[in-house]
Amino acid sequence: MVDYTYTLLIPLIPFVFFILIGLSGHKMKPIVSGLIGTAGLGIAAILSYITAIRYFWTDHLAESGYKSIKAFEITWLHLTDKLTINIGALIDPISVMMLIVITTVSLMVHIYSLGYMKGERGYHRFFAFLSLFSFSMLGLVLATNIFQMYIFWELVGVSSFLLIGFYYEKPSAVAASKKAFIVTRFADLGFLIGILILSFNTGTFDFQLLTSPTGPAITMPGGAAFMGMSVLTWSMIFIFMGGAGKSAMFPLHIWLPDAMEGPTPVSALIHAATMVVAGVYLVARLFPVYALGAPDALTVVAWVGGISSLFAAIIACTQTDIKRVLAYSTMSQIGYMMLALGVSGYGGENGLGFMASNFHLFTHAMFKALLFLGAGAIIHAVHSNDMKDMGGLRKYLPITHATFLIACITIAGIPPLAGFWSKDEIMVAAWHHNKILFSIEYLVAGLTAFYMFRLYFSIFWGKATHYHHTPHEAPYVMTIPLMVLAFGAVFAGFLPFHALVTSDGMPFESHLDYSIAIPSVLIALLGIGLATAMYRKSNGLPDKLAGIWGISYKWAYHKFYMDEVYLFVTKKIIFGYISVPVAWFDRHIVDGFMNLIARTVQNTSNLIKNFQSGRLQQYGYVFVTGALALVLIFVYLWN
Amino acid sequence: MNSEVMFYLLAGMILVFSVLTVTSRKILRAAVYLLFVLISTAAIYFMLEYTFLAAVQLTVYAGGIVVLIIFSVLLTSHISEKAIMADRRQSLMSALAVVAGALLTLFTILRFTFTPSAEPAHTSTVTDVGNALISYDRNGFALPFEVISILLLAALIGAIIVARKEKDGIVLMKNKNLSK
Amino acid sequence: MTGSIPLQYFLVISTLMFFTGIYGFLTRKNLITMLMSIELILNAVNINFVAFNRYLYPQNLQGHFFTLIIIAIAAAEAAVAIAIIINIYRNFRSIDVDNVDEMKF
Q1: Nearest to A625 among B90, B97, B108 (CB)
Q2: CA distance B167 to chain C (A)
Q3: How does residue C4 score in pLDDT terms, banded at 50, 70 and 90?
Q4: Does A624 touch chain B if contact means CB atoms closer than 8 Å?
Q5: For a FRET experiment, which of A93, A402, A530, B72 has its CA 20 to 30 Å from that of A239?
Q6: 8 A C-beta contact, residue B164 and residue C88
């Protein structure tokens, strides 16, 4: 057994720095607090890389398959002999991969923020929250048991809430943070129910026990428990609900576009690369249970992922706020990952989807963080989020332009960049499993290429917008992270994921299927071509096309009125038909009863209290008349 | 005959000055009317041949308490200050209760037949009073005498403590603005 | 010296004096005049004691001594009462009984 106890430091270092910056940051110079936070993440990143290298290569674990290793575990809460909650660090292929993703992106975002947040109020607060987020996210991926994961899951939600609402003077930011928190919290309710059902029936929280093919979860007797599905299936669906909320899957996606109110580096870190893939990670973490114990739940995962990716891709084609386009793109890509998990089997070649999902998670983190940071640089230069205010920026922002183009090509799936490899694996997995989902993915691939290049051309080409002041390239502290991530976006595809991150730890052979890869590249090129035709030069084509699509365009532009549907459900139905009567009952019946008691007591007291008026002569009067009355009674009336 | 005239005179003085005491709007005058009432009462004690008691009444009441009252009036209000009288309703209700009480009491007194004792009267010279005050036999009043001396001492010290100006350590009635 | 004056006459006088005192106690607003009303009440009682002693039990001196003691107590009471009144005056700048109602409800 190899000692990995030091991995405990990876989440703890950001936590310590969070406390340090949070408590004493206001006394430091802003840049110092930023540098401290960045340094903390740097250490965590180095440790993560060491862990990855050791785990995958130098410790020779591959021969017998990559086993999960409990690097550290203590009993945190000893409630009863059966119910204990542990805290620890679990090392296995996906957690190591997530460590790399999180620390890399987080480090890049930290460095980038040093420049991006310059001069903002609450500079140290921003870095404190970033550290808090990094701690929570790292704790989440290292969780040894589902309850620890849930704790960190909520911590991640809180950090996200704090960072979306970073500009708390802005009402829209406050509303967005509340929306994100409430929607994910609602989803987490399902997660908690799932955890409780699962743990009640298996008697354990531990991931290693749960995911063991001979463990209590998978070998749990099946049979229809409720509506034709077993207890395990139900619990896994509930757990997936939490994952869907965090990963912004349809129909719980409504918070993600609004979450773009937060500072752009936050969007890059939390709402593109790390937190939103927590749902994917959750399903991947429990994948053996899904695949072996609850295939019905896995089908749900696949369809939710497929629908979300299509849905988001359509909306992304119509939005004009560049961050929102990226947000819907994120949602679409996460849909891909979910779908890949959903179509995967367990073990060996069957686990292709599992591998593809994690592969795509990895590459997506690189290029989507790159896209967001690039968007941040653009916003930094133009001071607007709307692509209508942009155009012809390639002259002014050469580095941003180059890296953004790389990211766009990557996400469109053009070989040999990273996105192609991971997406291709997903296509193959889908092809073998479900032809309908496969065709959806083909369509989405084309749409993705189209909307990304629409975005790209609208920003960097198109009409030469006249700017108030000449946009200038961001400082090096912002462009270097862009270049690093661009490097990742180009070369991440060559990592031998099929040998490293697999569903059962055993490596398998993966090869390019040209019959699937070539059409997918072609459809991506078609999307790119269409976007080039429409947006390369300013022409009337987009408006004309929008006119042809008419009502459908309008629907997509208004995000299929999902927000309105939610508002209708919450305001009209829940508020109108449930909350209002309940509130009325509470206010008038329950409170009324209490008020009646209180008022009765008060009135009685008011009546009685005048006896104690404090007026001496009133007392005297009562005394004298009382004495006379007694005389009258006892002397004359008594006998 | 003489004594009857004397009695009616005293009775009239007591009643008139009593009423004046409780109705006079000037506090200092009320105090003086009270003095007259007390002197008339002393005169009644003389009539009843309790001369020592009458002397005590004159010295303690007329000479002591009334002077004390007049001093406190001078300390707490202007000479010309008119007393605030109770409102009409309070006066009326009080008068009603008082008249009812007086009628009840008078009715009781006049209906009852007192039989005066024919026994020879006990002399009440200063010697008798002095002996009774220090004797502890059946007709002695040594115990009340001692108790009353303690009471007087306590009242003396208490009055000084209550009335003296507040200094550090002793704080009385500090709640000046408690419920304002 | 009392001659033909019946006991009731004294009692009537003291009754009227007593209720006059009560009337004063109930209606006067000034604490000092209220104190004076109390002195009236005490005097009325004293007359009663003395009269009863003289008419009904002339062989004893109980009523006489009771009166003597009441006078002493009245002196003590007056002293303490005036001390309190002065203190109230110092705290409230007034000796109006209606102002002294801090202890109400």
Answers
A1: B97
A2: 13
A3: confident
A4: yes
A5: A93
A6: no
The structural domains of chain C, with segments of one domain joined by +, span 30-92
**Contact B162/C56, CB-based, under 8 Å?**
no
pLDDT at position B79:
60
- B177 — pLDDT class (breaks 50, 70, 90): very low
**Distance to chain B for A635, nearest Cα, Å:** 9
| ipTM tops 0.95 | no
Span(s) in chain B for CATH 1.20.120.1200 = 1-85
Neighbours of A435 (CB within 10 A): 10
Per-residue pLDDT reduced to its tens digit, A491-512: 887 777 777 777 776 777 767 7
Task: Sort out which chain B residues have CB atoms less than 8 A from A629's CB and list them.
Answer: none
Q: Which residues have CB under 8 Å from A571's CB, separation 6+?
A: none
Q: Which helix (H) or strand (E) holds A78?
A: strand A69-78
pLDDT at residue number B169? 47
- Among residues A408, A372, A128, the alpha carbon closest in space to that of A266 is found at A372
Of all residues in chain C, the one with the smallest CA distance to B37 is C40
* Candidate CATH numbers 3.40.50.1170, 3.50.50.60, 3.40.190.10, 1.20.120.1200; the one for domain B1-85: 1.20.120.1200
Q: Which residues of B touch A632 (CB under 8 A)?
A: 104
Distance, CA of B14 to CA of B27 (rounded, Å)? 18
Q: Count of residues for chain C?
A: 105
Which of B94, B111, B178, B179 to probe by mutation at the A interface, max A CB count within 10 Å? B94
Nearest CA in chain B to A636: B108
Name the packing angle between helices A278-285 and A146-164 (round to 10°).
170
Contact B101 A635 (CB under 8 A): no
> Which residues of C are less than 8 Å from A612 in CB distance?
103-105
DSSP track, A342-371: HT--SSGGGGHHHHHHHHHHHHHHHHHHHH
How far does B108 lie from chain C, in Å, by closest CA? 10
φ and ψ at A76, to 5 degrees? -90, -45
pLDDT in tens, A389-445: 777 777 778 888 888 888 888 888 887 777 788 888 888 888 887 788 888 888 888
**Residue of B18, B139, B143 best to disrupt the C interface, most CBs of C under 10 A:** B18
Of A258, A355, A242, the closest CA to residue A301 belongs to A242
pLDDT in tens, A397-411: 888 888 888 888 888
Which of C26, C70, C99, C104 should we substitute to test contact with B (largest number of B Cβ atoms within 10 Å)? C26
- Does this model's pTM top 0.80? My answer is no
A635 Cβ under 8 Å from any chain B Cβ: yes
Contacts with C42 from chain B: Cβ below 8 Å: none
Q: Which chains share 3+ C-beta pairs under 8 angstroms with C? A: A, B
CA neighbor of A146 nearest in space, from A337, A8, A7, A282: A282
How close does chain B come to C43, measured CA to CA in Å? 7
Residues 6+ positions from C8 with CB-CB distance below 8 Å: B109, B110, B114
How do residues A459-472 score in pLDDT, each as one tens digit?
A: 887 766 666 667 77
Rounded to whole angstroms, how far apart are CA atoms B34 and C45?
16
Task: State how far residue B94 is from chain A, nearest Cα, in angstroms.
Answer: 7
Measured in degrees and rounded to the nearest 5, phi and psi for residue A145 equal -145, 165
Tell me the three-class secondary structure of A33-75, residue by residue.
HHHHHHHHHHHHHHHHHHHHHHHHHHCCCHHHCCCCEEEEEEE
> Residue C105 has what pLDDT?
60
Length of chain B in terms of residues written: 180
- What's the DSSP call for residue A82? S
